[in-house]
Protein 1
Amino acid sequence: MAAKLIKGAEVAAQIREELKKEVEDLKAKHNLIPGLVTILVGEDPGSVSYVTAKQKTSHELGFYSIQDSQPPDITEAALLALIEKYNQDPKLHGILVQLPVPKHIDSNKVLYAIDPNKDVDAFHPVNVGRILIGNYAFLPCTPAGCQELIYRAYGDPKGKEVVVVGRSNIVGKPMVAIMIQKRAGANATVTCVHTGTPKDKMIEHCRRADILIVAAGVPKYIQGDWVKEGACVIDVGVNRIGKSEKTGKAILAGDVDFESVSQKASFITPVPGGVGPMTITMLMKNTVMAAKLAAGLVKL
Ligand code: NAP
């Protein structure tokens, strides 16, 4: 393998150490303790494990932290009222509703009910708009994690050709918005390809990329001969492609054909262990930012 592995778990651990120190400082100098509530509706095993991991990390970092589990039949009105209660709680700076919510609840209504200054997932339209304007406090966690990995492993993407495969609201679109910012860690020339891009054109664009970020949800889609020699490849995809007979655990594959692409790239994220570990860490970073915003230590 020619490419260097970008180990998300190691970068995430490094950022958590930085955050831990910042939390200690905020306590000591400003008597400020970042507060996070995670709201879980129902008992979907995947969602339970996500909120458990978020709670564990927030405790490790010294946050004030609440896990609020609600039954699957909670009404939409009751959930909105609960969010409003947390909007009004000055000890809580971040509110996260674990998605998906049950079908009888409108997930957009839920996300839009969160005070934008406590919206640590950065899904509220006000925060989406703030990002487009370039005056924001939070970035959505997964693309923000990709940006950190690129900056810390590959270097400043300023002036580089970045190609993003996929345009979802949670990964592809915000990834584009992040990489075009006139700031350190961004300032790149960005192209986004998707199912509207003819395949031959898409391959052409991928071949030009100094940095290729893939969030298509198609296992092993990107092939080695679609990648420029020396490119930095960030594989966001997490696809279950089978079950291990030995352990019974899901076998995961990214959106990139790791075997062939790792022969061409200079840096590549593995799946699992690349982008995944960064997502929760960026949520913690956003919560610290939300606390500083509430305390007037940073201004928009
Ligand atoms: P999504 O909502 O399904 O969006 C996929 C995007 O890729 C869409 O914009 C789609 O285009 C585009 N696309 C699909 N097939 C394509 C193809 N053959 N060629 C070009 N573009 C194609 O998925 P998502 O939520 O963005 O997630 C993408 C992947 O990342 C999934 O595997 C997901 O599990 C993973 N993920 C990982 C993390 C993490 O923390 N590691 C977080 C979030 C997501 P259209 O818009 O035209 O349909």
Protein 2
Amino acid sequence: MISTRIAIFASGTGSNALKIMEHFAGNAETVVCLVVSNKDDAGVLLYAKQHQVNTLVINKSDFYSDRSIVPDLEKAGINFIVLAGFLWKVPDAIINAYSNRMINIHPALLPKYGGKGMYGSRVHEAVLAAGDTTSGITIHLVDEHYDNGKIIFQATCPVAELDTPETLADKIHALEHRHFAGVIDEYIQKLHHS
Ligand code: GRF
């Protein structure tokens, strides 16, 4: 049996990480084994504990050292990485070790509103300032540039005239929660059969 061992990287609340842990709970082939965070008080670490998932809190000097945390990931048998609200740029050592096996979610319709500095409410503010009537989510592979890898999935939602960055963020979160885990699951199935 092919087994996929996932590490989720997250910096914040971790509502997407939680959905992913719930989705794969009880799945013998695909297991969330590790949650990695750059913040020792990130909400995601509590969700990990609730789901008996190991955690790793990283610091900048280790993360940006030559091999980064690749040895820790290898030791834990990680063969797939999901970025779910992870705010640090992933170093090339990890990108090279996990090419085609690392997925990110972005809260807008890439290639619009992506790139360095485009995260959190800034994305929604930019969408509203541009007067777009549609926004959405993008799930994509990670390469060495911010928000640039091959797009795997997009879903849209309408932007209403009265939307604020907060109401738009709520709509986007709902879309993310509906789709992210299922898209990861499908992608992993495809990897197994390719
Ligand atoms: C999500 O909106 C994701 O698209 C972005 O960061 C947010 C993380 O939210 N990259 P959460 O921590 O999963 O609640």
Protein 3
Amino acid sequence: MKIGVLGAGQLGRMLALAGYPLDLQFVFLDPATDACAASLGETIQQPYLDEAALARFCASCDVATYEFENVPAHTAEVVGAKLPLYPPAVALTVGQDRLNEKKLFDALNIPVPRYMPVAARGALDMAIRNVGLPAVMKTRRLGYDGKGQAVLRKPEDLDDAWSRLGGAEAPHTPCLVEAFVPFERELSCLAVRGRDGEMRFYPVVANQHRDGILRVSIPQQDDPLQAQAEDYARRVAEHLNYVGVMAFEFFVSEGQLYANEIAPRVHNSGHWSIEGSECSQFENHLRAVAGLPLGSTAARGHSAMVNFIGRAPDNAALCAIAGVHVHHYGKAPKPQRKVGHATVTANSEAELQRRLTELVALVESVAS
Ligand code: AMP
């Protein structure tokens, strides 16, 4: 079976690496000249809206998916009209727009931080009166890794945030403002839903960000919020008639979950599952998309994942740490860019902590 993937970044690369043992083949569509999945399958290097490229893409595969959530809606419509597209295009419509996401969470009775849409400078003052300070202003679309965001702590911050995100530099960018959550933890729940509606859930993952970029993910054992996170993820997945892996990111404040966002795709906070679970998020996504029975989402021992940001340590230093599994994405070093990750596994919590401390120190010593 040939799987068409919209996007050919590191997530596409890891999907292909998981798919080859299952005898799946891949075709990618991505406009980038240096897409890092390109060496793993036929790659159509054209814009997402190029009609000839879309026709070629659809003619080359049996079923389509995406690894990039900002695929234009028209692309998803064209592909979805010709082929089974999983997750369905509606998941993109929701996942691409923070306001759509929040409205859906509200409709499904999933708690969210207070928020208000903001389309003009005047509306920002009103939104802040409603939401309060501190708050976070975010562009509704195209934000990632902390980009398209500003923290508002005092009234004087509003002008600057507006001119940066919604005003002079990017006129008429629809934004929203949400309450700043003084969270104790950030958790994500990775769920997979098969074509037949069966759902499985990975252990929830505790995520540590810096400068809006994910640094470390640690799957939790028997977390008290596991059942609640699964319930919320199930509500969203069933509502969207979802097929594939979905990531749901939460803030934990006073022991309660508050929805932050969903990603309608495999997710960075699930990379640990390649070595740390029975069946990785990448394999399970492909199983769902291909109509195969889902694999076990159970953890195998203890594990944690550390991102290489900007630059990766050299292999000799990484491989010298016991239990480390290295993943380079084939990307050129660049400040703030995710260029790879490592997962560290161990048989006990204490051993994991020792190895993780060593790995984090090594990764941080070269990060930029
Ligand atoms: P996001 O792109 O929305 O996932 O935001 C990136 C990171 O910024 C989050 O993982 C948090 O660490 C931080 N952040 C975003 N929104 C809020 C908020 N409302 N309150 C506190 N921290 C936030």
